[in-house]
Amino acid sequence: MTRRTYGQFCGLSRAVEMVGERWALLIIRDLLVGPKSFTDLAEGFPRLSIDVLCARLREMEHFGVLEESMKDGDMTYELTDYGRALDDIVMALGRWGALSLEDPRPEDIITENSMIMALRSTYQAEAAAGLTASFELRLGEVIIHAKVVDGVLKAGAGPLPGADLVVEPGPTLKMLMTNEMTPVQAIDTGHVTLTGDASLFPRFVSLFQIHPVPVSATT
């Protein structure tokens, strides 16, 4: 396989050669949620051409990052152990990038996979100590859920029947996650709709936070 190289004997250089091409890390993000068919991947990236998707999948399969497998008679793509080792890296990049998020741009969309990874990457385990609760998060047509059992998070796609609390935050979700708006303010101003145990809402907000990068002391 012909590929571009940076001509440097460096681990970061090799990593970027393998997964630094356009769309590659977003494909990995979605596969970290779970195996996907080619159709699943294509539908998750409406601005990604089929040719480029095919190229990225071939490249990452060549490098041992992902592999093809059969699931229920259909061909799917899933990460190898080597590819799954990118989990912490992808989540750290997501946290870093979230610090620069402002209002959504007109062309921006959200997907189940992106929001599941957003919950995982912003999860504050220390705020979940001793907590067992279940949440459903409705973001327009996108619905995901989160279960916290003894402080351990499991996030997934779709509704969660019997969830302790259903949250519909509208456009305020990012403001809640950055403490630009408090849970009380969101409720008092009608920006959020809650169904179920509303007393869990402040705890829910505390579980998923985008923290600013600490300012280093200068000398």
TrEMBL record:
InterPro entries: HTH_HxlR, SCP2_sterol-bd_dom_sf, WH-like_DNA-bd_sf, WH_DNA-bd_sf
One Pfam short name: HxlR
Domain HTH hxlR-type as annotated: residue spans: 10-105
Keywords associated with the record: DNA-binding, Transcription, Transcription regulation
Name assigned to this protein: Winged helix-turn-helix transcriptional regulator
Organism ancestry: Bacteria, Bacillati, Actinomycetota, Actinomycetes, Pseudonocardiales
